[in-house]
Amino acid sequence: MVDAVVIIPTYNEIENVERIIKNVLALQRDFDILIVDDNSPDGTAAKVKVLQEEYPEHLFLLEREGKLGLGTAYITGFKWALERSYEYIFEMDADFSHNPNDLIRLYNACAKGTSQVAVGSRYVTGVNVVNWPMSRVLLSWLASKYVRFITGMDVHDTTAGFICYKREVLEKINLNKIKFVGYAFQIEMKYKAYLSKFKIKEIPVIFTDRTRGTSKMSKGIISEAVFGVLRMKLKSMFNSYEI
Could you tell me which residue ranges the Glycosyltransferase 2-like domain spans (predicted)? Predict the structure, then answer.
């Protein structure tokens, strides 16, 4: 039985989805993959269904009715994984900004080390980002600095979306109480793990911006992160923040 599942949310990832699936399933360690597709008009889900015939025991698909947000896609995937016997549950992008080979390093940090959360970190050993304009690098780096200052978390890459959670972390966190749906979702999950006293380890990775497809970043997502973190911290200070 495979003990690890990689959750990959998709929306219009027809250019990447077959390559990412085949790369993950070709690794020396066995992983299952769950694709959570938000009704992609480009046929992403249809491509996954074709690939399921090739990988019937390791590739799974959840189709949602519309574009409902990154956070809810992961929560849907987490609940699906917790209904099964997976011990290690991963988040990963479909666009190769996260190197599939690093999945094994994240897995080992949790399975062979003492950590309950392993974060593929762009900033723990400097700035390891490829193909981003300097303005976006600065925005992302300063956002993580800001979150670290506000929350007190000893995590350099607070907005990272390349993560391994041990099962016990997701069982502890009340997934129905997660407030954020955009990239601030990543901050909230780490913060709840931090408040729950789980050990978070950052594994240095090189983040490479997508070369195919289009980014889903928006001003609304950034605003959610900036102002949401303040509300989150204030609630935790007054014991009104539910983990």
Answer: 6-173
